[in-house]
Prior knowledge:
alpha/beta, Rossmann fold, 8-stranded mixed beta sheet, 10 helices, 8 strands
Amino acid sequence: MNPASFKDHFSKVARAYAAVRPQYPDELYAFLASQAPARDLAWDAATGNGQAAVGLARHVEHVIATDASAEQIARAISNPRVEYRVARAEASGLREASIDLIAVAQAAHWFDLDAFYKEVMRVGRPGALVALWSYGYFVMHPEIDEIIEHFSEGKLQSYWPSESRVIRDRYRTLPFPFAEIETPTFDMQRAFTLEQVEQYFRSWSGVQRYVDSQGEDPIPAVMADVARVWGDPYTSRTGRFELYLRVGHVNAQLTQFEHERT
Length: 262
């Protein structure tokens, strides 16, 4: 993948993305740090707004957080233990065999995985921990859940980038050429107002692509459906997101991975 091929699905909605996406639990970061060979240096690839980088910094001495989007980096959360850089995950510019923990939050499905995994093998120290995670739609209320499912897999079905479909498989179909370990179950909870649900929809790549293709906004119609179920618009409702994790240690399995992909 060359720089021109980077698919930037989120710079246009960086502010909304940062405002309404759920927060990963601190228990996740603590678990990952406990499994790393050391806690000196972590790399958060495709950091976005820096949420995962700041979380990791509570358990690791220093975090280098990279993103190919300068807009996302410009809006990232400031933290004295996090160093932000504009760089693609497949060409990080990091020093060879220097990283203890490599994390990718809600982004690995966008990568050129062949190139990224080579970069992981280059920058990870022996036994470095690699953690990829994602999450799907929230679960909130049966009627609201049904509206979201119909919207996302109906009107938006043909507008989702093909790469995002692996999330529907809970990341189990994502190639992962590392010595995988079992992980606890983690989820996230976030309180939403009705207005924040709209912002959340607008942060979806499928919505962006629908607007670009059709020249119309699909959000007012679906929000009218949600509002009818919601009740008092000033009342908050809690959504629960399940995390889908792939976690393992860097080893020599990449050669086999490359062979199987050819």
